[in-house]
Amino acid sequence: MACPTQFLCRALRTVGLVLFYYVFSIGITFYNKWLMRDFHFPLFMTLVHLVIIFSFSTLTRFAMQCWTGKPRVTLPWKVYLSKVAPTALATTLDIGLSNWSFLFITISLYTMTKSSAVLFILFFSLVFKLEEPNPFLILVVLLIASGLFMFTLKSTQFNLEGFIMVLLASFIGGIRWTLTQVLMQKAELGLQNPIDTMYHLQPLMFLGLFPLFLLNEGLSVSTTEKLFRVSELSHLLYSLVTLSVGGMLAFGLGFSEFLLVSRTSSLTLSIAGIFKEVCTLLLAVEFMGDKMNTVNWLGFAVCLSGISLHVGLKTYYSKGNGPMVRQLPVRDNPGLELPLLQTKEDYCEDTNDEEEQEILY
């Protein structure tokens, strides 16, 4: 049994990692919404973020290689285009549509609608046979769907176009995370480390989003006084700095999520995500002028109940009370699963101390 000092240190570490995750997760939501008030080019913003994430991933891989003395994985072109491209396309559409929606909807509606991603992750996990069917899943789906319906039914700041964008992003996000799981479970690809996965995804994501950017924002960006027709250098520097800060927040979010899961568990990430949504809504009402009535709050509570039930079920089945998650039949399966579906026992079952040190460094 761990001594009180060890327990306290572990608890403080967990709280610190959760707060570190909150800074980036909540920060990028409010930052993107704030930026979209004056900078109406969400696709261009996303492209800049992709470049920054790729740059930081490259630097991190180089540092890891210098520290461990082991070369990082680099996929051949044939495997890269055939295996990574579908995941990159789904990720691009998810992030692009999410950022685009900030032009139309409030943070509270975005947060609530984005929480429906759990439904689509469950759906595609069943389609790809990554999870066993379970009658309780029906209750989870009904609670989340009912909560979302109640939230949007009486919303005074509802925008159909933005709502459809976020809902579509959540649907594509279900495909994205399912494909990401399949990609990271293919041990022969060597993409178990999320930094390597981010490094390989960003170029294809950029190429996939660039044509959509040209069609929708290309002419507007090329003629805007905020960038290419700027009259003062200070205005250009301001635009570049604000875009760069968003890119660093995007990279920090991915890194903080992985750090929280690797040092605690994805169950902790799921529970922290529930409270993060509560904090986001409260901050949006307090500082961004979002309006929520009694029916909206009740719908939010019903939706959180569904998400909490899902987390509770994962905890129950992880203790050997029944099968819930089915692993992919691949060689040397590292035991990685979707962050929203994984538990501590699943993550640590086949991971030794040496491998964990290599990933963390």
Automatic annotation (TrEMBL):
Domain named Sugar phosphate transporter: residues: 15-309
Keyword Zinc-finger annotated: no
Residues passing through the membrane, by range: 12-31, 43-64, 102-128, 134-153, 160-179, 199-215, 236-255, 267-285, 297-317
InterPro entries in UniProt: Sugar_P_trans_dom, TPT_transporter
Membrane-related topology note: Multi-pass membrane protein
Cellular localization per UniProt: Membrane
Matches recorded under Pfam families: TPT
Source domain of life: Eukaryota
One GO term describing the cellular component: membrane
Keywords: Membrane, Transmembrane, Transmembrane helix
Keyword Aminoacyl-tRNA synthetase assigned: no
Protein's recorded name: Collagen alpha-1(XX) chain-like
Native source organism of the sequence: Sinocyclocheilus rhinocerous
Name of the gene encoding the protein in the UniProt record: LOC107737589
